[in-house]
Queue: 2 jobs
Job 1
Amino acid sequence: MSDEMKSIEVKTDQNEMEEKTERIRDRRVYMPRTDIYESADELVLVMDMPGVSESDVDIVLEKNVLTIKGFPVFDRPEKLNLAYAEYGEGDYQRSFALSDEVDRGKIEARVKNGVLYLHLGKAEQKKPQKIAVKAG
Amino acid sequence: MIYRRYSVPSIWQEMDRMQREMNRVASAFAPERGERSRGTVNFPALNAWTDDDVEVITAEMPGVDPKDIEVNVVGDVLTISGKRSPEDPDAEVQYHRRERVCGEFSRSIQLAFPVDSEHVVAGYENGVLRIELPRAEADKPRKISVKTA
């Protein structure tokens, strides 16, 4: 049963990295819905992560792969029974491959109302080098 | 013979959960029904918790300004409505992905019992709305003592 779920997750996941290791925490992992847009000087990721506060987010940039993890805290009503459920409680994880354009020093993240905003500044364009051709 | 199952075996809970999840995924691709457009059908996703005296509804609604949320209770029907504003970046941006749904939404859910609308408490934190609805006094079960003659 869990194998089936896993294969679905892998298919929908965008990264090509294969996760062979298992997670220590026994919680389901969801792929947060994400908007990505690009302006002249930055790339912005907007991710829905309900239940996540600014201290529950883990962002790692390794080589060209940006991995975002969220560990939300759910306060379950004590002594009550779950009568009806449309969403599951679990962690969030998603990875994206970045181009070299991103300046690693200019990455900013903030969380507001359960949404993560990630601003990735673009590296300043290298000026094209002019090569003078001499007649000889 | 009468027997009672005190605890549901966990495999069934897991099956239930999967079924709910599959239904939800399938309903997102179902043709539009009535005026509701795709996306608003499932937004916000709700969980309901109950016991005999209180019902707690939690709703995942990230990115909604708490000022834009409206909660109404009439009898045993709860309505949550509001608006999720799209991010408004400068005009000159190019979208690579748009997976988040924005716009107005409204959902109604029937509760397990009529509630005391005076004492409903709603809170919004980190994108999760939580509403506590105590059962109406008039609806609570009453114990009737049996007298011996």
Job 2
Amino acid sequence: MEKAESSALKEIWGNLLSSPRRIYETAFRSGAPKTDRTRSSFVFGNVFLHLHSVRTHIWSLKWSTTMGLGIISTAAFLITLVTGILLMFYYKPYPDVAYQSMKDIHFVVPTGRFIRNIHRWAANVMVIAVILHMARTFFTASYRKPREFNWLIGWGLLVTTLALSFTGYLLPWDQLAYWAITIGANIAQSPREITDALGITQYFDIGGLQRTILLGSDEVGAEALIRFYLLHVMILPLILVMLMAVHFWRIRKDGGIARPDDADEIVGNEAKTSYPVFTEQPEKTYHLAAIVKGRTPAVGSGPENTLPSMPHLFYAELGVLMLTTFICLALALISDAPLKEIANPLVPENPAKAPWYFLGLQEIVSFSAFTGGIGIPALVWIGLGLIPFLDREKTGTGRWLGGPGGWNLFIWSLLIGFGASVGIEAFAIYFGWLREWFPDVPQLAITVINPGTVLTAIYAAYSIYVVRKHGSTRAGAVALFTCFLCGFVVLTVVGTYFRGPNWEFYWTPSDWPGH
Amino acid sequence: MTTKPGKEASRFDPEPMPRRDFLGLAALGSAAAAVIFSLFGMLRLPKAAVLTSPSKKFSVTLPDTLEEGEAFIPEGRSVAVFKDAEGVFAISTICTHLGCVVASRPEGFECPCHGSRFAGDGTVTKGPAPKALPWLKVTADGNRLQIDENEEVPGGTKV
């Protein structure tokens, strides 16, 4: 009796002593990831890592395939997530109080200003990286079957990223914030430009409804700030994270990064020479390869030019993550995030500028609110979403500008995109537009015919010409995408550097009156 | 159940729709209906029945020194009040383009945000503004003026 008791106690003691090891073993069932096989099991059995396939094709690991832009976007998002949560310790979403809390973060909170700078820079890096990532996917035609749906998810991620940035721009409640939110809310209201012209606003006021729901009031005030705060810290990040999960999952389910059909011949048989495929004889592989159906890369025989994701892919990803962090920290040390005077509803900033990535939009908004703020962006957005469903050609998938036309077409499109946008801008700046020539022109005419729509029409006409010339949808898509990207850059640069007080054109800020 | 001659129902005939399928579909349908109805309920939430907005009516007395063509901006309001030989009138200084506050200049109004210009009577002369600046209702009570920012009057109405 006594003996049984003491042995039971002994057992508990022994279990207690071995519990750390047992906890480790139950958490990581496949054991220490020391061989290719255990590493593969480790990747496969880990909820975070299994978004990667166990083995990665050498083509996908090449720097020129992706340039790491997806990982840069993700890394920048993670940085904004961490710094954003830190800022939430002090930020209070109420008019005027919000501004005071920003001042506190700047001047009282230890590291507060640095954290805010990092947050701001990481958000900017994220916007740039997401746009470049989209361009990479487009120019390598990686959106094609079976990746069409993932392009759509990325399409949603782009919009969510921009919305996150814009809602964040408003939170400091300084002059920049207040007038950006005012302009943004009135862009939401701008369908009235059409309904007013048609005389149906009193029956069908979609613009007014959008504005009221966005602001929660007739005015930009406490209701609006709490709504943007809620969007910025809760609703949009949740949407973003969900879309990201689907996006990553689909990369794996769609067979990894897109590569050309002859990728194996191009990379040769590097895999066997650069790294041993197996460091031990596989005992059994069926629990990795045979039971799971679908697009799981086989582990065991390695006919393709693949390398184990761990460590090859993970080191690459970690490197990009560290580089992104370094860039954000360095920028945060060099340059402070702006904080202007407290919001004043009676005196707008002059010039009142949106965040830089919206200055291209602000430029076309300055021709017509509805066309520039809703019409053309919606058109571009729908066009982007349709790309994989219109271009169903085969040639050039996975290669930079691999399809018909190639680099020549790209350079021509760049020239035309640049020439047309600079030309139309110069024309509008120098000669003015319809209102200045015919003061009584109806508003609907300006909404339909303005520099923004003319530019869009030129780009569309050029790409239709390219489609006919090359007999290829892809060629037309390359032309149109390149033109719009180029136009976006040109308009953004004009809006950023060449617009001064009253949105007048100035060669340099030193020409601004009052300087 | 009445049976027609020659088409007698047999218990060996397959049911048109198995009962389990029917019950399953009915359950799914009611669950979907519940979700849709609750979604509509939630969609109703963001638009409050009463919106918080400060009063748009205010009273003001013009200074005696106000010259013809010179704008008087009442404190805290986006309204320009003018006085000439025919009477007093008020023009809203909120740009009809995207809601910035326009500045009053001798030659009219100019908007700092997207470069719209307006003549002295509020009509658009340049830029993206779709409509003229609205004239606001002014009621005179001796020297005291009452102005309602919510009520527009046709251009040219002076009191």
